[in-house]
Specification:
The structure is a single chain. The chain has 18 helices and no strands. It has 507 residues and is mainly α.
Length: 507
């Protein structure tokens, strides 16, 4: 028989081009995933800040002390920091679409329970439930986008996640004051109910249902890592809230002691929660470290500016937040645009440039005095907004480009966990610095905008803020160095083998 006409398996036919219907179906699924991922990101961002302006009202109506009610914020930060990595791995094992949708449902239920809470203790427990759902959404959003979008269009999609986070931060800051004043603090949670119900219904119809991996869930790793992060985070938060104590130090030490045990378990596991050998890849490891340091170095600046504007300049929380809105707006607009540039030129230069712009903005903030023109704050925030719009889609693209298909959730969750840990530590660092010149009770009141400072203590407080801003600039400088030193993302279609240097390919 003529070999050229032999239909044997040794000579397979080329794949058929996708039909117009198949292309339309793929486009609809991509749009639905991007919509739900962006919507979930907005809601998680909103609820991380929306209760800040409502705290004084909540203290009065729940008849509970501030140091108790403030745990409505802290428990949210604690649970999202501790659970995000595990939530991403859960998506790998059980199916990312299913797990993401379940997270949206849990978040919505937690919102309803928070709104109906009769006392502070129930509110804190409900916020913990809400944080579980938020961690699941935050961990799996990037993995879903990576799963359904081709590499040449992922940067733009990740840019919309930046848009979602920036819009959520704006809405959380602005809506918190408006809703609390006009409707009451409980409606800060009730507004999530119709949005969550619609999103879950849409997710059941459109999210990919069959993306689960045939792997076991790493229960020992999950429990050890959760205990380690939870213990460290709780000890650090209690230190910021109440000052140093042997109990808090004990929590931190126990958490640190559990980390080597976690590493040993993961190295021996056949189905590890984290594939630690993947982190030795320079591109992935440095990109994740840059994500952690960006959150630690920059998010503390937002807290410090809030205390500067409210404690030293006497602005209300709503007025202070309005001055920061321009930066968030620029970040929201720049995110999708910069994402397209990542698809064109690669992530390395854009991510590093974004960090350098944030560093410049932080140094500019450090020049503010007790009599500076208020207009400097929104002008400087424009620079930082461009920086965040550049960094996040570029850095996320670099991270997810190195994630094996079967571990998209684990890597996406690790990225989210590091960002949440940086946020949590930023809060701890800010309150610790503030309490070096004033009492912790006063520092909380300054943060909430219920008091301002006068006399010599104001000068000490400003000096502490300046020192913290310079420290943040150093952290961002290290993050920029790591971002550039990680090397270039390999050319598409030629991923590096595990452990190989990633210094060639497209920039």
């Amino acid at each position: 028989m003529n070999r050229s006409t032999d239909p044997s398996p040794a000579a397979p036919l080329p794949p058929a081009a996708p039909t117009r219907a198949e292309g339309a179906g793929t486009g609809r699924r991509e749009s639905a995933v991007l919509l739900l991922a962006t919507l979930g990101t907005i809601m998680v961002a909103v609820d991380s800040t929306i209760v800040i302006l409502a705290l004084p009202t909540m203290v009065r109506e729940l008849r509970s002390p501030l140091e108790t009610v403030i745990w409505a914020i802290l428990i949210y930060l604690l649970f999202t920091a501790a659970l995000t990595t595990q939530a991403g791995r859960l998506g790998d094992v059980l199916g990312r679409g299913r797990v993401y949708n379940a997270g949206f449902a849990v978040f919505t239920i937690g919102s309803g329970l928070s709104g109906f809470a009769p006392n502070a203790e129930v509110l804190i427990a409900a916020r913990a439930i809400q944080a579980v759902g938020g961690a699941v959404m935050f961990a799996n959003a990037g993995a879903l986008i990576t799963q359904v979008y081709p590499p040449e269009r992922r940067g733009r999609a990740f840019g919309f996640l930046v848009f979602g986070w920036s819009v959520g931060a704006i809405l959380g800051i602005l809506l918190g004051g408006v809703i609390t004043t006009t409707l009451g603090w409980r409606y800060n949670f009730f507004i999530n109910l119709p949005i969550g119900a619609i999103a879950v219904a849409l997710g059941l119809r459109t999210l990919p249902p069959s993306d689960r991996e045939p792997a076991r869930f790493d229960v020992p790793g999950f429990l050890t890592f959760s205990a380690a992060l939870g213990s460290i985070s709780y000890g650090a938060i209690e230190y910021a809230a109440s000052g140093a104590s042997w109990t808090d130090l004990g929590f931190v030490l126990v958490g640190l002691a559990l980390l080597p045990l976690f590493v040993a378990l993961e190295l021996r596991s056949h189905h590890p929660m984290l594939e630690l050998r993947e982190l030795t890849q320079r591109l992935l490891g440095f990109s994740l470290l840059a994500s952690l340091l960006q959150a630690l170095g920059y998010l503390s600046v937002v807290f410090l500016l809030t205390m500067y504007l409210q404690g030293l300049r006497g602005l209300t929380p709503l007025d202070a937040s309005v001055l920061l809105v321009p930066g968030y707006l620029v970040g929201a607009v720049a995110g999708p645009f910069m994402g397209r540039q990542v698809d064109r030129v690669g992530p390395r230069a854009l991510a590093t440039s974004g960090l350098l712009l944030m560093l410049v903005a932080v140094l500019a903030y450090a020049q503010l005095t007790a009599t500076s023109w208020f207009g400097w704050v929104p002008l400087i925030s424009l620079v930082s907004g461009v920086g965040t719009g550049m960094f996040f889609p570029a850095n996320t693209t670099a991270i997810m480009s190195q994630a094996p298909p079967r571990r998209l959730g684990a890597i996406s969750g690790l990225r989210g966990a590091l960002t949440n840990i940086g946020t949590l530590l930023s809060f701890v660092v800010t309150l610790s610095i503030a309490s070096a010149s004033v009492s912790r009770a006063t520092a909380y009141e300054v943060f909430l905008g219920t008091t301002d400072l006068r006399g010599g203590v104001a000068s000490q407080f400003l000096g502490g803020i300046h020192a913290a801003l310079y420290g943040s600039a150093v952290i961002l400088g290290v993050a920029a160095a790591l971002s550039w030193s990680r090397g270039r993302v390999p050319a598409r279609g030629a991923p590096p083998r595990a452990g190989a240097p990633t210094t060639s390919g497209s920039p």
